[in-house]
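Weekly structure sync - notes
Attendees: PM, LS, DV (DV joined late)
Agenda: review two folding runs queued last week.

Item 1: First target. Sequence and structure tokens pasted below for the record.
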Amino acid sequence: MNGSGENAPSPRGPTLRPKSMLLGALLAAGVLGWFSDKINPYYADVLTKVGINIILAVSLNLVNGYTGQFSLGHAGFMAVGAYTSAAITLFLGPRLLPHHPMGDLNWATAAVFGGALAAGGVMAALAGLVVGAPSLRLKGDYLAIVTLGFGEIIRVIFCNIPALGGALGLNGIPACTNLFWVFAVAVVCTYVVVAMVHSTYGRGFLAVRDDEVAAEAMGLNTTRYKIVAFVAGAFFAGMAGGLYGHYTLSLDPKGFGFMRSIDIVVMVILGGMGNTPGVIAAAVVLTLLPEWLRPVAQYRMVLYSFLLIVLMLTRPQGLFTWRRKWKQV
């Protein structure tokens, strides 16, 4: 053995290459999207809902799980992104591509749709900045009340914009969402959140969560960290809203109410706060659970609620958490 230790095995085991994993996951999403037309429409519908819920849960986990805040306004950011991207493809798309209907699968429409999703995410991020800058100086229940109020304000605003359908909703949205777009955004969202948290800068998120007073004493600008997490989470919630709108082909302001935010929070809590794999698993399970309960349709939501109560009583730390062993090197 070389005395310098160059040939010695790393105490951390094999080194993971996140960029290679990202490319592999994007390739898998591309293959899934390529064969999406051959998948049973029911299974494609369920997979699409699973992917959208993964984006929402992972992005909220950055705020509620890793940074230790408690936001109840994620559905509001989803609504901002949904209406922004739908307005671009519905009103601006035909002007940009007069000879290519937005529902057609080609590079031109894909570019417009991708730009619309990005614009929806940016608008949602700006909304997150506007809400987060003044409100993230609050903590706990006070922050939850402020974000809850924001979500309701957004819903009421969209109810009173006739150009976007008002209370009747926005209809006729092009059918642009497919499995590739959904899972490509889900992969990128997961990669960005994990990369942020495990970076040198991202350790500040964990410090804010563990002890905000101690983090401030060490010189960290805790408000800035909370705003960064809030804006990043809002961006991906906006993109999820855009995917949702271009899949359902209509948007109803009632669909972005308080209960939608609660559904996303339940996924984060059930998966384990600050546990990305667990949150993804919880998003999958809670999306599939109502489908599994379809044989007892009249009791489906009662059983769904009962199972959530049992899980929270038996696993208050989260259903998909496990003890991690960190090795000192």
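Item 2: Second target, run right after the first with the same settings.
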Amino acid sequence: MENCPVVLQHQLYTVLDDHTSVDVELEDLKTSNHVRLFRLLTLRRDIGVLLTSTYKARVQAAFAAFAQQEETRGRDENITESICNSVTEREEDGNDKRSRNSSVQASKLSARHMALVSDFFLKTVDRVTNISMTQHQLESLWGEYTQSISHSQAPACPRSSMSAGPGKRRAAPSLLPSIDEVTRVLIHYGFLARRVDAVYEGPAYWFSAPELGSVTASLPRGRKAILAALARSRYKELSEQNLGALRLKGTALSLSFHMADLVGSGEVLAVPTASGMFLRLPARTASGATGR
């Protein structure tokens, strides 16, 4: 996929015939944190694979974009505030001024916290290689992180929030966001997703990536379209050229991605011929496959 270089685990089976070797190698890469595995919330519970370095770069890019937006917004708000102050200054009493200034300061504090959340999550990705983690794990890691930064200088923050003078560069534990606020931010940005199955008694979260939502929505649509086209064909098979003429609606994924998906999962057979590659429905699924 162009916007998210994720592959599905079973797509790798189209490259190597020995599925067991693929699974063993993938587990080793996951354990050593060279790749991340993600549960896609499809009916088939597909597993996505993404390089850890790519995943961390996307985390950094997402929070850097937020910092840039906050900096731009802060400049715009300061200009608007200056204009409003010149008009309403005589009409405001001291309490109103203190209340408004407190609100502005809170928004700056929020921006500063985002740098901490980004730094914390990157460190979490380095330490947790599983496909999910529990609320207890998240709370424990956040507790360790806040203790460490209370005795050292906080990580670099967005420029718009670095207005503190000398003596105010360390993050006071009492001013740090709560673990609930951290979790909400990570869910909002698409790096965590609530795990609602019954594996854990308490709350748990899947690791995720913002682009995985598009993959999850596109997969069943592309599968359904290709399987339906094969089922309509006379011999339940189509050449790659004929498949290329299909108009796959509602999917952001390429035809080659969908073909590797269906072949890797065993739903269709890839048959090489003198005239090119053909995709064919297995006899047992020649009718009625839904592609979910």
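Discussion on item 2: Strands lie at 7-8, 35-39, 47-51, 132-134, 192-195, 204-207, 237-239, 269-273, 276-280.
Action: LS to circulate a short write-up before next sync.
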